[in-house]
Write a structure and sequence with these properties.
By secondary structure, the protein is mainly beta. 9% of the residues lie in helices and 53% in strands. It is built from 1 helix and 6 strands. Strands 1, 2, 3, 4, 5 and 6 form a 6-stranded antiparallel β-sheet that branches. A hairpin with a 2-residue loop joins strand 3 (52-66) and strand 4. The longest helix has 10 residues, at 7-16. It is globular, with a radius of gyration of 13 Å. It starts with 6 loop residues before the first helix and ends in a 5-residue tail after the last strand. The mean pLDDT is 93.
Length: 108
């Protein structure tokens, strides 16, 4: 198993897969990690997950709704989403790039 990753390389690979918003790059039973990129003005199509989730916003600007709470997010924002909670990014004003951590590993 790889121990080190380069985010720009991962994002470049994600972009080469037309239409893909999410690229997983690490998976062990207790955790999976990927990068999620949403274009400015784009829509976030995701549905609630069966796992707890943490987003770390690397760059960009948007709003997120988690359950009934809303917040502006930008580089440096950390968002926790409990399993099965409805959540979505919206009003994406700058391309959003976020690391996404699922625990345990995301169901496929």
């Amino acid at each position: 198993m790889k121990a080190f990753y380069d985010l720009p390389t991962i994002i470049s690979a994600e972009r080469s897969q037309a239409g893909k918003l999410y690229k997983e790059f690490l998976r062990v039973p207790a955790l999976s990690v990927g990068v999620y990129v949403l274009p400015a003005g784009g829509a976030d199509p995701q549905k609630p997950h069966n796992e707890d989730e943490v987003y770390y916003v690397v760059r960009g600007r948007a709003h997120i709704r988690v359950g009934s709470e809303e917040q502006v997010v930008k580089a440096g924002s950390v968002i926790f989403v409990a399993a099965l909670v409805e959540h979505r990014f919206f009003d994406i004003s700058e391309e959003l790039e976020a690391l996404v951590f699922f625990a345990p590993a995301e169901s496929l």
